[in-house]
Amino acid sequence: MNDMDLKIKGKVPGPDSGIEVRKSLCAICDPNTQCGMDLYVKDGRIIKVAGMKEAPHSHGSLCSKGAALRQYIYSPERVLTPLRRTGERGSGEFEPISWDKALSEIAEKLNAIKDEFGPESVMFFAGYAKWARPYLTRFTMMFGSPNYLTESSTCATAMAMAHQLTYGAPAGPDLKNTDCIMFWSQNPSASGSLNLLNIQKKLDAGMKCIVIDPRVIDLAQRADVYLQIRPGTDGALALAMGHVIVEEGLYDKDFVENWTVGFNEYRELAADMAPEKAAVICGVSAADIRAAARLYATSKTACIQFSAAPVVHHTNGVQNYRAVFCLIPLTGNLDIAGGNRMNKPSIVYVPGGFPTREPQFMCIDRLAGMPERVGEARFPVWAKLTNQAQACDIPRQIRTGDPYPLKAFFALGLNYRMFAGSQDFIDALCELDLIVDVDLFLTDTAKYADYVLPACSSAERRELRCWPMGYIQFTQPAIEPLGQSKSDVEILAELSKHLGLDDELLESGMEACVNWILEPSGLTVEELNKHPEGMFVPGAKPPAERKYLNVGFNTPSGKAEFVSSLLAAVDREGYEELPSYREPEMSPVSQPDLAKEFPLILDTGSRLPMFQHTRMFRVPWARSLSPEPHADICPDDAAAAGIADGSWMKIITPRGQIRARAHLTKMVRKGDVHMYHDWPQANVNDLISGDYLDPISGFPGYRSSLCKIEAENAVEGGADND
Ligand SMILES: Nc1nc2c(c(=O)[nH]1)N[C@H]1C(S)=C(S)[C@@H](COP(=O)(O)OP(=O)(O)OC[C@H]3O[C@@H](n4cnc5c(=O)[nH]c(N)nc54)[C@H](O)[C@@H]3O)O[C@H]1N2
Ligand SMILES: Nc1nc2c(c(=O)[nH]1)N[C@H]1C(S)=C(S)[C@@H](COP(=O)(O)OP(=O)(O)OC[C@H]3O[C@@H](n4cnc5c(=O)[nH]c(N)nc54)[C@H](O)[C@@H]3O)O[C@H]1N2
Ligand SMILES: [Mo]
């Protein structure tokens, strides 16, 4: 082998090997992590991926998902041309058509629907891919529809609402400066491994740690106090901690007196939740509750690492997180270094410490004159606190036409299995006149669309991202889009022209938009192009502390609210103004009769490190780490049902059943069944009703319903279509 062959074989970049390194990022998980990536390209094809050493957030690391990026991008399931449906919805029968034909036909249909039923009858949806959301929001507003919806109808928003109701805006944990961190339902080992390195360093340096999780996660083993809570009882635990903090005088009297409302009412509520009472509700010891409360309240600074998902994936989720977040003002750990701090997002949810015009770009102010959003009447506080429609209400409105008929659904990446009652969701969608899905892959959901438009991956497009340390990257495409696929933003810009929306800025393309958005930061595309690996934003700075001293809190009272004025204004069950504890709607306590037949708690969705919702099932390396659907149960429950480790079992709820392999583990509490969501052949969301929702947020109760398990002798798994 000569020198050049060796260089090619060794994937050594340089002019003689013809291998170029392009600076990109991994967009498989989104948006707070996203490792910087070096993509090695030869002859227009990515031949190797590696972590980008210059990235200050990922330092050259990649997880198992990113390492498999080539299999994700070059999947045989990629859609490579626009497709028009020829068979029944769901059959997967399509014919390829040209972009021009596809966009003209879609535009003609959307405009006809708009003329006959009004723009509000068209819904615009973004799935978990978040990078193109500012563009889709603007597009929706320009079209004139109030119905911009996203996967955040089940992710993060309810958590944000609990913050907003309590002190006006989300307040993130200041890990860097804290003396004590309380992981309240977050498992970075699986869901955010980048942060794990920072956490481990802090733990090594003596940071105290409390973990509240029904499963013995890795971090539980390093915790000073670990509380193995029964799913969905977080509110009771938080109130009991508040009880101890108040009773023992550990609260911040100055802050409470000057900056909160409703303390006396809260004190009474917490007085009724002694640790001994919560111990019974939550299945933990009263001594541990006291220890956790004391550690959190007496550490010089302490913060709460909350999650976008598990606590709010219950029918009592917002109130439970409200009870948790009340501990922050109670102890004065709000908006201080080492506590939970407020910071404005710069680009796509991520606070970068620099100003942008992203909010103005999205043209949200146009909502003011529009008809009500889907879900607005059913979830009035949601409507007050967010700009989105609530997607979990779509099936109801399609079926009833109340308050107006819905006719079309346009999606950037829809996965119907993400919704509780998935089959009902897609059945309802099939009653619409038009479904358009833009996706990288011909997914099971795309098969229901009338048109499927091929999106390209992050390696084939530009993407604007920032990270909390004030770092920004505007990636350059590493390769040409595969087939005829295009970037979502380009698709929106072209559809805008076909629709005649007359949106000059969007239609002039992504770079013009980025220049417009970044204007207040002083950055330009020209400057960013000189730094394809990204750069620190000049002048970016961490948020000031105690901003409330000047501007108060963004609540109706201007103070942190133990008693929420927004909840008090709605006279409905579940909208109590104090964060009082209610059982999940389906629990062994709330439904003892049902629990006789279905005695176990079904808690679904805890992240697995190799999967990202539906995305990685089709990726061979990821799939080899977990080839078949499985659920975690404890050895005692398995023995009681006669189920052996690794054997097939049935998980049965009043709504139906699925098959999964039993994974016996002492990590799980007795009485709980944990299963990942989205498995193509074992969709756990079909076991949960689409109407099993938190009355405040509309989030599904993914993490607590009732089930039973039975042994099964058959050995064959189901077909895997997605
Ligand atoms: N690898 C991977 N990473 C991901 C994702 C993925 O699909 N794969 N998804 C991303 C998304 S969209 C999200 S929202 C985040 C979510 O990521 P996380 O916030 O970490 O959420 P989960 O892993 O779902 O659950 C975290 C922990 O909550 C516990 N838990 C379950 N029910 C309860 C409960 O009722 N109370 C309490 N206190 N704890 C409970 C679980 O046992 C689990 O260990 O992850 C993101 N990161
Ligand atoms: N039972 C249960 N259900 C859950 C959860 C749970 O914990 N338990 N978690 C909920 C949460 S927190 C979330 S975030 C949702 C997951 O949200 P989903 O939206 O279901 O997430 P994905 O499957 O990652 O992405 C949806 C689609 O987007 C496509 N896609 C990826 N990148 C792009 C892109 O750049 N452009 C376009 N146009 N399409 C793209 C993917 O191929 C996929 O088909 O699931 C929710 N459902
Ligand atoms: Mo999520």
Give the key terms.
722 residues, alpha/beta, Rossmann fold, Dimethylsulfoxide Reductase, domain 2, Barwin-like endoglucanases, 6-stranded mixed β-barrel, 28 helices, 27 strands, binds ligand MGD, binds molybdenum atom
Distance between the termini: 42 Å
Total number of helical segments? 28
Query: What strand order characterises the main sheet?
Result: 5-4-17-16-15-6-7
Any ligands, ions or cofactors bound here, and which?
A: ligand MGD, molybdenum atom
Q: Which structural class do the helices and strands define?
A: alpha/beta
* Proportion of strand residues: 15-25%
The CATH C-level name of one domain is Alpha Beta
Descriptive notes:
Strand 15 (408-412), helix 19 (422-429) and strand 16 form a beta-alpha-beta unit. Helix content is 30%, strand content 17%. It is of the alpha/beta class. Helix 9 (234-247) runs antiparallel to helix 12 and helix 9 (234-247) crosses helix 13 (286-298). A 7-stranded mixed beta sheet has the order 5-4-17-16-15-6-7, covered by helices on one side. Among the domains are: 83-146 and 347-462 and 482-498, Rossmann fold; 175-338, Dimethylsulfoxide Reductase, domain 2; 592-711, Beta Barrel (Barwin-like endoglucanases), CATH 2.40.40. The mean pLDDT is 96. Bound molecules: ligand MGD (2 copies) and molybdenum atom. One ligand MGD is lined by residues 127-129, 151, 154-155, 309, 313, 412-413, 415, 418, 438-441, 443, 455, 488, 604-605, 612-615, 677, 684-685, 702.
